[in-house]
């Protein structure tokens, strides 16, 4: 028998009461190795990677964990689990993925080291969960309100040069943003302001200072976010005051233009073909009718959940047995429907059939594919249109009115595309046009924009922020060391908490190295150890460190930490069940049976 297999076989005992050899936990080792490839994405100075597709000969530039995992082959279950966890974090917050992957890796190493020292799986999970609870409590205790952050930024009066606009005006300080009633940041009792007018102006400028705090050196992207926030505020001037509305924000990517050309525009801006742009020019200046389709615009499309009746064969629904196909008949019905209802614009969330797109061009009907559901919802609200799943469902009540279209910028000389604007009178949609002369960089700039937008949105939603640049993690190290000194029922907990503290030191040292504040990880570890010695000598660790003025989102950070530990526990438990052949539930049932005997 293979020595490793024999060693694993000897460990087939109850996973909660017996140790399992470290070498058997392949899943944890794979998770640690995968996470190590993303360390360059931690912190503000990300190191992009080129992913080469040897078969196609293409290369993709990635600068985030989510994009990296999208473009590499993940054959094993561990890689798939990590990818799913990253997607879940990215879908909700659009940030925090770097910390999630890094912590999943170092905490896998903690679990492996604990196994190597003979600590049981149950004790590992209990102690690590306790360690996470300690760190989450540090977050809750050290969080500062956004009002405090705004006041601190005001006192500094030293905006970074990178955040200055082209006119050398501090645009970040003068964006007229109106917050929603529940998020309005008034400073009525501040000693800096004495009149209601000044309080209002302070509320308008607070968002720009908060944006600066969570920009994470993505200054140009955050400027775009603030411009979008300002434009949304102007659009809804007569309505209820609003903060940044993520659902009313879309992007349009234009490669081949300078980054300085990036801007924000009112309405929905998208790139269309030259042929479609000719239709736009014919429709320009008119009040148009619009139809909204949630799905694909083709004969074979069926909505999610559709079940085709069993044992039913469709022979024909016409008396004449002509050779007209189902697709041709559907195409005729669709065109007749659009003509009868005088529909000029059709927005589709999915794709449209090639034949339909060719036929509608001659009828001067504009069909736009790949439209986000949030855009469909806004047009539905503003025009009265009712979204349908099939074009044949459209009737008079489903048609919206009051849409205008116009060409914005012609790029046909470069890439055969034309940027087109589609708006309604009262639309609150804002499009961020993101440009770059380097085509491979456009996707990264869009990710950066959405990350900034969500960080600002989340800061206003939470009402609290955490000190960034590793300051909160240093407090976690301090508190874990302090927790080790208390009496514990299980002496193994002290070992686990110490290893978790070392994992946090690895995190902070990598962050310091990537940010350029140190030249090596050894120097970073020395600096962290020095700070811990100062704490032992009675000097408290300040929440504000070398990264003064940098803040992180409370909810984003907490959720990233929880997801990372959940992933480690899932892989740990899966490895254990594979090795021992006993699941957690079976272990509990076995103990009950033994106890009953």
From TrEMBL:
Q: What is this protein called?
A: Bardet-Biedl syndrome 12
User: Which InterPro entries does this entry report, sorted A to Z?
Assistant: BBS12, Cpn60/GroEL/TCP-1, GroEL-like_apical_dom_sf, GROEL-like_equatorial_sf, TCP-1-like_intermed_sf
Q: Which residues cross the membrane?
A: none
**What are the protein's GO molecular function terms?**
ATP binding
Q: Which SUPFAM superfamilies does the protein's record reference?
A: GroEL apical domain-like, GroEL equatorial domain-like
| GO annotation terms (biological process) | chaperone-mediated protein complex assembly; convergent extension involved in gastrulation; photoreceptor cell maintenance
């Amino acid at each position: 028998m293979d020595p490793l297999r024999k060693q694993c076989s000897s460990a087939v005992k109850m996973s909660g009461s017996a140790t399992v050899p470290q070498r058997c936990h392949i899943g944890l080792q794979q998770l640690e190795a995968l996470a190590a490839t993303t360390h360059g994405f931690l912190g503000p100075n990300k190191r992009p990677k080129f992913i080469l597709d040897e078969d196609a000969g293409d290369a993709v530039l990635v600068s985030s964990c989510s994009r990296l995992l999208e473009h590499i082959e993940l054959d094993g279950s561990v890689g798939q689990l990590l990818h799913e966890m990253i997607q879940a974090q990215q879908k909700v917050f659009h940030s925090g993925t770097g910390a999630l992957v890094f912590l999943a890796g170092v905490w896998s190493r903690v679990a492996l080291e604990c196994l190597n020292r003979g600590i049981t799986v149950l004790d590992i999970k209990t102690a690590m969960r306790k360690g996470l609870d300690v760190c989450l409590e540090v977050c809750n205790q050290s969080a500062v309100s956004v009002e405090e952050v705004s006041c601190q930024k005001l006192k500094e009066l030293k905006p970074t040069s990178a955040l200055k606009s082209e006119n050398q005006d501090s645009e970040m300080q003068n964006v007229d943003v109106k917050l929603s009633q529940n998020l309005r940041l008034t400073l009525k009792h501040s000693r800096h302001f004495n009149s209601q007018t000044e309080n209002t102006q302070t509320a308008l400028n607070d968002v720009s200072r908060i944006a600066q705090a969570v920009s994470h050196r993505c200054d140009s992207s955050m400027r775009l976010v603030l411009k979008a926030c300002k434009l949304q505020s102007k659009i809804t001037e007569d309505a209820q005051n609003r903060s940044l509305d993520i659902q009313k924000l879309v992007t349009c990517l234009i490669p081949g233009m300078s980054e300085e050309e990036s801007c924000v525009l009112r309405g929905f801006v998208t790139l269309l073909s030259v042929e479609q742009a000719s239709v736009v020019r014919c429709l320009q200046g008119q009040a148009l009718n619009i139809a909204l389709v949630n799905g694909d615009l083709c004969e074979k499309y069926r909505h999610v959940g559709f079940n085709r009746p069993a044992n039913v064969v469709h022979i024909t629904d016409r008396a004449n047995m002509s050779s007209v196909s189902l697709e041709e008949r559907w195409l005729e019905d669709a065109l007749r429907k659009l003509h009868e209802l005088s529909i000029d614009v059709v927005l589709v969330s999915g794709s449209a059939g090639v034949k339909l797109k060719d036929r509608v061009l001659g009828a001067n009907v504009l069909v736009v594919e790949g439209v986000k559901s949030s855009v469909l919802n806004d047009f539905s609200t503003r025009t009265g249109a009712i979204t349908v799943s099939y074009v044949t469902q459209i009737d008079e009540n489903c048609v919206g009115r009051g849409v205008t279209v116009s060409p914005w910028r012609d790029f046909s000389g470069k890439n055969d595309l034309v940027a087109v604007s589609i708006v309604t009178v009262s639309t609150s949609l804002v499009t961020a046009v993101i440009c770059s002369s380097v085509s491979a960089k456009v996707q990264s700039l869009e990710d950066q924009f959405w990350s900034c937008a969500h960080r600002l949105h989340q800061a206003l939603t939470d009402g609290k922020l955490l000190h960034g640049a590793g300051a909160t993690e240093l407090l976690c190290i301090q508190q874990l060391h302090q927790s080790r000194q208390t009496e514990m029922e299980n002496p193994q907990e002290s070992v686990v908490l110490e290893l978790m503290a070392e994992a946090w030191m690895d995190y902070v040292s990598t962050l310091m190295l990537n940010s350029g504040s140190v030249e090596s990880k050894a120097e970073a570890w020395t600096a962290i150890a020095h700070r811990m010695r100062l704490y032992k000598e009675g000097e408290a660790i300040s929440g504000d460190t070398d990264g003064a003025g940098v803040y992180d989102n409370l909810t984003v950070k907490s959720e990233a930490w929880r997801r990372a530990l959940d992933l480690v526990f899932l892989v740990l438990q899966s490895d254990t069940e594979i090795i021992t052949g006993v699941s957690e539930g079976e272990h509990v049932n076995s103990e009950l049976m033994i106890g009953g005997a």
